[in-house]
Write a structure and sequence with these properties.
Distance between the termini: 25 Å
Structural class: alpha+beta
Number of helices: 4
Radius of gyration: 16 Å
Strand content: 25-35%
Oligomer: single chain
Mean pLDDT: 83
Number of strands: 7
Length: 205
């Protein structure tokens, strides 16, 4: 696992799923010059391709844990249960739980966006990777900061057949820098790629 507060290659090197990149672009547009958009700025009808994979988290116990307030149908189907009201960190091992909690706390207290690379394991021993974004969003009360998130599995969920899914490991987490307006800006010098990124394929965002 790598943890970083600095750029590591381009945005595309970090965020593999096109749906996650689209969510980041939408969030940047909604927030404008602010540190975070308002909940009232979010119109899920205009995000119909992403909405099934989105969620909103509320910090509890002093941002030591997080509860699902809203969960998209695609995400509930992927996790094989209705997650509304559940502990977001349930099922993760102690180390991963601590690392994810710490990063999410930075999202809500410092309003720092975060990107996670997660891996899950099915009851059929299938390993499924996913990109997850956690973005600050001001709640309807105008004060509390919630997490606007999106979890986007790599591959085609329609071809997977399993009954249970469990968190496996946290492959990477990146907190963006303290200047949110720089998020999404491609650095002048990119890290060399060890592979060629070919556009196209299935976009299930």
């Amino acid at each position: 696992m790598w943890v970083s507060g600095e750029a590591r290659g381009s945005q595309e090197d970090l965020i593999l799923h096109p749906g996650a990149r689209l969510l980041l672009d939408t969030w940047l547009t909604l927030k404008g010059e602010r540190a975070a958009p308002l909940r009232s700025d979010l119109d899920l009808r205009q995000m119909h391709r992403q909405a099934p994979w989105l969620f909103i988290l509320e910090p509890v116990q002093g941002a030591r844990t997080f509860t699902y307030r809203l969960v998209g149908t695609g995400l509930c189907g992927f996790l094989k249960q209705d997650m509304t009201g559940c502990d977001f960190l349930a099922g993760w091992e102690r180390f991963e739980r601590g690392a994810i909690s710490q990063a999410l706390a930075a999202v809500t207290t410092k309003q720092q966006p975060a990107h996670f690379r997660l891996r899950y394991l099915t009851d059929l021993e299938q390993r499924i990777g996913a990109d997850m974004l956690a973005l600050p969003m001001t709640a309807r009360d105008g004060e509390t900061v919630h997490v606007l998130g999106g979890l986007f599995p790599h591959g085609n969920p329609d071809i997977w057949s399993y009954e249970r899914l469990a968190p496996a490991d946290l492959a990477a987490v990146r907190l963006f820098g303290n200047k949110p307006e720089k998020i999404g800006v491609r650095p002048d010098v990119q890290a060399p790629r060890k592979f060629r990124l070919i556009s196209g394929g299935l976009d299930l965002s």
